Structure formats: structure tokens, C-alpha cells
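HUMAN: I'm a chemist; might I ask for a sequence paired with its C-alpha cells?

ASSISTANT:
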Amino acid sequence: MTYRKLTEEEIKSLILNGSFCEDWSTIEVHSAFSPHNIRNVSFSGHVKIGLLLKKFTSPGGVPKQSGIYNATIHNCIIDDDVYINQVKNHLANYHIKKNVIIENVDSLFVSEETSFGNGIRVAVLNETGGREIAMYDELSAHTAYLMAFYRHRPVLIDQLLKKADDFAKGVTSAMGTIEEGAHLVNCRTIQNVRIGKHAFIEGVYRLVNGTINSSLEDPSYIGPGVIAQDFITASGSEVTESSMISKCFVGQGTVLAKQYSAENSVFFANCQGFHGEACSIFAGPYTVSHHKSTLLIAGYYSFLNAGSGSNQSNHMYKLGPIHQGVVERGSKTTSDSYLLWPAKIGAFSLVMGRHYRNPDTADLPFSYLIENTDESFLAPGVNLRSIGTIRDARKWPRRDRRKDPVLLDAIVFNLLSPYSIQKMIKGIKVLIDLKSTSGPTSEYYMYNSVKITASALDRGIQMYRIGITKFLGNGLVKKLELADFSNREEMLKAIAPISKQGSGEWVDMAGLLVPKEEVDQLVNDVEKGIVTTAGELNKRFVSFKDHYFDWAWNWIVPRLKTEAGLDVESVSVQQVMDYVEEWKNAVVKLDQMMYEDARKEFTLKSQTGFGIDGKEETRMCDFENVRGEFTSHPAVTDILEHIEKKSNLASKVLDKLSKIL
């Protein structure tokens, strides 16, 4: 855009409209500029002004005209069709792009050269430092995972921090930007903050040194009473309702509201923080805390549901807050649960009660960790049969709030995966070894500071075997369903592994399930300088996600041999048919367990409090009208439909196989 100096007539018109400038020669305007939409404005420094012609309607149907009214403007570039009104103190050192609305703002300024929150170190997990994550606009959960947990690879850490710092240098400026279509309304102080496209900021109390990333497809919202310092928020995020954040990264689709308080924490895709507080946490995707008395501190979580009053301690009153905890994906904490760090909780576990003995249940996923008479008891595998576990797994993809075409976090949602099944396989070995070491007549067994009763141990082995059969069979049946074959040789070719890639150990990189060998290769590539930018790093993570199903099958093939005795290179058709039957039985058995678990929600005990002014018939009628009939409940119908669907699938595959027998 080309600018020109003001004419004498334009200067006179501006002065008549109540505007002032010590040196009008420092003001440049669009060639077709009109001064009529500028009133009561004090200019200083170098200011450029575009065309101010657009008319628009504000909420409530109030007609308005773009322009600058009742403001102090210093050293700004103001693009076309901007509306600025009632800047009480000053608007300084900003490039304000097209169609921006700024109304009733106390102060909006850049006070010094700044990187707008980029490069800030966030002390996650350990409050005293050692696992710092460097924030930047394109930070993904997976990059943060490497920064926090791969401290044994110092060259990698140096490279990752350098990438963050290089990114920060690239955006460092003494001039801020308010991108096209952003709205800033009824705000107090905004200092050294860069604002993205179509962001909506209203009623904030104080924002200092940060970036509000946003997009047309997925605008961000910063709402009333928010105080934020040293922060970055991603597109589609919301921070509102008097929440307070300091040294925080807020990921895509994340909502922090209802007076939530967080410091030195990172929140990735689709987290929710209401009422409670967070300190030095790594909140992987779908970490959820909804309760006023809930504290998350010095922990790593993902797909977590934190109950009311859930709490952790990260020091034992000796060397200070140096301890950390890991709660693996998909876990829940019940009301008033407590964990003394250090501790490690296995994937998809339920934590109930208070636990002071630093449990480590990582190799026993899908478990209940329960307090009984001040002791920690573990029931391995029982969460596999919980209707709540399946309900959670199905709702996560449906609750993905991200609409931006560029997703920073590459999430694999699968409940059963090589990651969780490898833990079940290891879990069976752990339980069998416990039994053989302590003797088959023991009433309970000690494992990593928790007690496992004899009956719970036997049930855990059974549940894990069912889960393993279900997952391995899922992969095999899907291959057979999609393949075309007319003889055994063609069948063997159809189920052959694509490669050996992914056949080893798997890890969960904050929501991304991936073979460890791929992570190691990526780490090597970063250390050698093959991966040079943050963008390239994120592309690799997306590639990992895209390859998930191929790599998962490569992992399944050798486990079919070791766990089920099926060698895909030489298996007979009859063996495959037998295993399909075994798979169907495992699926149906698990579904029937979940069906019975769901039925507990409809027992007479569950009806307590219903039919408040009547007898049993009234209570049952009231319960039915509020909760619905058991057989028509969506979760129950889902189970019944799943049984029918998988049974039909088994019949279809068995029919295909019988034709080549």
C-alpha cells in the first residue's frame, strides 16, 4: 500500500474534529483518505492510516462506521476498515490489520522488543527445573514430550531448544501485530501481546507478554476477567471467566474457565480446566479437570478425567518439590483421591482413595487402584470390562473441538493398541511370576507397594488374555474382511506383514502412539541436523499418525505367533477359522461384561432418591422417565449393536474362509 502526507485541508479538518499532533508530517495516509471518520484523536510518533470506509453493525443492531475516535495513537500502522473507539490511555507500537475492532480499551501497547511469549521456558513436572519446555507458536504435544522426557539425550534437547529460540528470534519485534478481523472490546491492559486472525478478546483484566494464535476457521477467545502473563494460546482455545495463567501454553481446542488457575504448565489439544488449579503439569490431549477443589501438580497426564478433590504431593518435606508423577493415558481419579509422588499409574486405570506408598502400576493397565484400611490394593485388568472406559474412548474423537486446517497435535485415539496390548502381555508375565514366587496359596501378593489379592490376580490374567485376543483378532479379521483371496496362498499373501517396521516396542508420545524405533530415528535425525525446523518436526509426527495402522499390523503379526500360535507364513485355513471363532467369543464376552456393568446403573440401589413423594412404583416410574429404560439407553444399545456387528463380521469372514478350506 502506498501512503502520502496529509494535505493542509485534511489537517485543518482533523483539528476541527478535535484531533491533535505536534508534528502532522509524521502522519501518512492512503491516497484516497478522508479525515471525516477521525475524531478526538491524539497522534504521536509515525502513524500510517488506511481507508476507513466500511460500515458494520455491532451486537444489538447498532450501526457503526470504521474510523478512529476518542483515542491516543502512537507509532502505529492502521490498515483499511479498522474501527478504534475509546482507547482511554494509549494505543502504541502496533500494526493493526484490516477489519479489526478495538473499543473501550484502557491500554494496548508494546513497551519493548519482545518475542511475545515465544522462547519462554515452562518448568513442567519439576518445579525446581530440569524438564523445561520452551514455548513457541507451533509447539506440539509430541515436541514438548521430547523436551521434557528425553533429558538423557542432551544433544536432542539443545537442538529442540535452539529451534524454539530460532522461532522466537524470528518473531521478535518492538512492533506488535493485531491480525485481520480481530476484536478487542471492554479490556483493561494489554501489553506486548500479538493477536491472531479473528481472535475475540473481551473484558480481560491484564494480558502481558504473549501470543493469541487464531484463525478464520477456528477463532480463539479470551474472555472476562482473565489475567495472563508469559503465555501462548493456540487456535480455537478459550481462556475466560477470571482464569489466571502464568508461563502457560494453551493448546488447540483447550478451554480454561471458571476461575481456573495455572502456572508453569502446558495444555495440549482439547483439555479442559474449570474451577481448580494446576502447577507444573504436562497436560497431554484431553486432560480434564472440572472441580473447584482439584489440584493437578508436577504430573504428566493425557486423556485424564480428574475427580473432585483429586490431589497430589510433589515433595516429602525434605528436599522440596522435586518429585514427579506419571498417570498414563485414559486414567481417572475419583473424588478425594490422593497420590504421593513419585508414582506411575498404568494406562486406563481408576484411582480411588489415598495412596502414600509411591505405587508403580505401569505394567498393569486397565486396573483399579483402591485404598482399603490405609493400604493400596490393585485389581488388574478389571477396567477392561467397565462401560465407562468404552464410553470415554468413543467420546474422545467426537469431542475434538479443533477446526483449524493445521492441527498441531497428531492424536491416535485407539483404546486397544500395540502400546496397551504390550503392557497386557507384560502384565500377564508379572502376575504369573508373582504367583510362582509367592506360592499359589497366598491370600495376596505385593507388587511395587500395592497389594493384589489372589482372586484379583487370577481375574487379571483372564482379563488381559481376553483383551489380547480381541486386539490381535481385530487386526486379523479386518485384514481378512478387506482382502480378496480364492485360495490359501492368496490368503497368506493378504495377511503378510508389510514390513518389520513397528514390530518392536511402542510408546505414547502425549497422545501419539508410535513405535519406539521411529522415535529413536527421529531423535537421531534431529541431533544430526536432518530435521532443521519446527515445521519439519510436526510433519514427521503427522506421518507417524498416518502410518499407525500399517505399523500396528506389523506389530500384530509376530504376536499372533507368540500369543496365539498363528504363524502367518504357514498357518492353515482351519487354524485361522478357529482363531476367528476365539476372537468372536472374546469380543462377545467383553461386551457381555460391559452390559452387566451398565446394568448396575439401573439397580434398585441406583434408584435411591427418585420418586421423592411416592412409593416403589412412583420411584421406578420417576427413574425411568429421567434415566430411560435400561434396554434403550444409548450405551446399552451400542453394546448390543456391537455384539451383532462383530458376530456378523465373524460369520462373513468364516464364510470366505470356508470356501478355500
About this structure: The longest helix spans residues 454-482. The two ends are 76 Å apart (CA to CA). The chain has three domains: 1-102, 110-566, 573-659.
